[in-house]
Amino acid sequence: MINNSLKELSAALAAKKISSRELTQAFLDRIAQLNPVLNAFITVDAEKSLAQADAADKRIGQGQAGPLTGIPIAQKDIFCAKGWRTTCGSKILANFTAPYDAQVIERFDAAGAVNLGKTNMDEFAMGSSNETSHFGPVKNPWDPLAVPGGSSGGSAAAVAARLAPAATGTDTGGSIRQPAALTGISGIKPTYGVVSRYGMIAFASSLDQGGPMAKSAEDCALLLNTMAGFDTRDSTSLDRPPEDYTRDLAQPLKGLKIGLPKEYFAEGLAPDVAQAVETALAEYKKLGAQTVEVSLPNTQLSIPVYYVLAPAEASSNLSRYDGVRYGYRAPEYTDLMDMYKKTRAQGFGAEVKRRILIGTYVLSAGYYDAYYLKAQKLRRLIAQDFTEAFKQCDVIMGPTAPTTAFNLGEKSDDPVSMYLSDIYTIAVNLAGLPGMSIPAGFGANGRPVGLQIIGNYFAEAKMLNVAHQYQLATDWHLRAPQVV
Amino acid sequence: MSLTEADVKRMAHLARIEIEEQEVAPMLAQLSNIMGLVEQMQAVNTDGVAPMAHAQDLSLRLREDRVTEQDQHAAFQALAPQVEAGLYLVPKVIE
Amino acid sequence: MEWETVIGLEIHAQLSTTSKIFSGAATAYGAAPNTQACAVDIALPGVLPVMNKGAVERAIKFGLAIGANINRESVFARKNYFYPDLPKGYQISQYELPIVGKGDITIQVGDQEKVVGITRAHLEEDAGKSLHEDFHGMTGVDLNRASTPLLEIVSEPDMRSSAEAVAYAKTMHSLVQYLDICDGNMQEGSFRCDANVSVRPKGTEKFGTRCEIKNLNSFRFLERAIEYEVVRQIDILESGGKIAQETRLYDSDKDETRAMRSKEEAFDYRYFPDPDLLPMKLSAEMIAEIQKTLPELPDAKRRRFIQQYGLSSYDAAVLTATKAMAAYFENVVNSVGAPNAKTAANWVMGDLAGVLKRDSLEITHSPVPADKLAGLVARIADNTISGKIAKEVFEAMWNGEGDADAIIESKGLKQITDSGAIEKIIDGIIAANPEQLAQYRSGKDKLFSFFVGQAMKATQGKANPQQLHDLLKKKLAG
Fold first, then answer.
1. Which one, A223, A329, A388, C456, has least CB within 10 Å?
2. Shortest Cα distance, chain A CAs vs residue C20, angstroms
């Protein structure tokens, strides 16, 4: 059952083969057993989850069930959920109980899904390894020495280790796709504006986007049907008619044009990852697709641009954590200034502080034009690269990350080398495009490899179709780690 | 443009993050590394390129002028470190 | 050396929307602390701003009224600084691209007209309030005002005296109320001024170093603060010192300005476009629709009053100073007719304005509304009562004793216009005062007023003054 797809679970619930309470309890038991090893969850509240499960069972009994009714879903601890502790992986919010629901949570609640708990993450989603969490690192279920990726590392590990049938993530520079790749699951970051940011704790507002993380593309499509939707409370939410993201899953891929950016297969890409991606592309050709080389000439610049824009926005977004209205306040201080400084020095971890300082610097008087404005201009060039590329292809493919999962502690003392591991994912956020990662085999060390699929704006249904057809032909997505 | 210790201290002050004297040098080293990466941007000519602030070229939606929020201060203030008489308390502010 | 004062004003007008600029919380004044501070206003993690159309419409209305360019695309920016009454740690404002561009406004200083340039006007959110009463040595923060919409109106440094600055501020104050975009209540902080003041040797071009004076919540404080500041700056310069560019606070108790300690450090606000808010693009249609709703503006109204009612320039200016007063006056005139406009004007500007001021009432809350004052003016116009008796009637109306006709009736104040009756009274007075009559007739003209007084006393002031005068003259002459 823990390996069942959402569709199978839904069918079992509808057929009363299992109740939502039983299903939820089964996953809660698994969390109780394995979370001490994996540290994928920050907060579990069995009572709350089971109450939701009971409500779902009632709804199923009344014949009012939808596709997600009664299904337990792990929520990244970046989404405010009323009555749930919502920490964003930070000490500064360690005791913060959200007094309201994020739009994503509201939509899952309305669908009758069960909140299975809040998953671990890099502090304020700043990280690529889940090592910046105040609540400790998450272990990669495939290898306890490896990181699960980040920032949605808890969600990724939970799904990979079958502690949850599915989870949510957020992706600012690759935080859904990279951990999905490193743990062998599927995840999609939709077009910017498709999923409401209301109640999703902000890191870099112009880049942040929520999305599903699950075992398969089909599961992701079902989840996205619930997550996506216009929200008047988010001024950047797109007012578009609702879509059924499962609608094109069965379409054959004959004639599909896959663009391969030469910059994504250049120096820096690990040979075992390259090999796995090539094998996946060969499979696509068997399915009737053609490949064409494209160029994204400003790929290298995406990292410096991102490390100006994201910290700039973050430095401002995180100013609200000041010890006045909620959250941590330093126990001892001499005056207001001292209260601010001690609260923030004690409440934030090292990576968050670094990014706040960088962000403060690039916005400060005399440096704005050279850094912030320059980065915004380059952002446009990076976005235009994709516009050009999509003239030649339907989707773009490449590796999600340059290597398989690295070891815990391997890069934590070297921020720059950590940043460079996001080389293939960041540009997608800068352009606002949808991006996806699906499992495509394993590297030399037995750790998973992710294949990235990048679509044009609003091409989510197409991308999910492209991923699903591959998953019908392969079984990488069905492989599960043996967690001890 | 290379960062100095004075820059680090000024940013820490602007960002209201206490930084101990012995933390300044290591922080400077880390931030300088990051800024080194950032400097790559300067190699590209961006004359005539319009800055891109948002993913989509859309206009701001306007909301009707209606009151939609009710008083929730009791629930909100239950989260606060220090409250009295409905007010958030902070160390004395000097104007 | 002779010095010239240079003043520019920044006015913060609180826009009269029912909800906040970026949230759906109420803006009503005077609520219990933090009961009108919603999740967005207190900056809970994850909340987002959503722009209020009502605030945009009001800003456009203002721009059109000052003949300014309305920027078809404007941008919201974050102004970053830490302060307990600023929950997000940044204020959402407009920086590089404000909604209203350059415009101007004509002010009247004495009998001189002067055009003051408006640099820009932009939308922004207000902060909360820090209450410094002692909470065990701590400060209390009330965020009810946080995210209330403000229009910041920035003038050019075109004013040269405190009188001009006050005239400008009053003109703006009147304009925003005419436009119905701000209630203008200065006690409640709905209309606040900051003054940028500098001095320079007369005849020189270059501006001196300026100081920004905050917390000027009345026209009198504005005037006093500028005057104090000018003297302070001249004193420093004349004793060889230099002016430090700084933010100063006006202390009305001490009638002086002092440097703000919280603003001592150099600020670096790190403005950047707010990623939560898209550029605001305004359609030509929206602007045209708002143009249609523009009311008659004070300047046009003043000119019309002169032309239509034959009022003096001074009277017209006084009566159009506020929209409410102009409306009151026109209601009276509409009832009593344009030929009586001067009488109506005198009553509105004189007796009515006097008691309103005495009892600290707004004209909109006058116990004697316009239609009732019109009833009184009509009785003066048709000679039912004299102007003098009218004052008595007005006082009774003010005290809620009824309308003019009822009071005239019940108090028997109707004017005596019957010549026979007046003559009879005069005859009686002459008969009773033979001595005075003889003296008068022997040339003591001053005694005429004695007889007027006696007659008025006998009629309790009700005799028609003109008739009494004429008949008395005739009878005394013999």
1. A388
2. 14
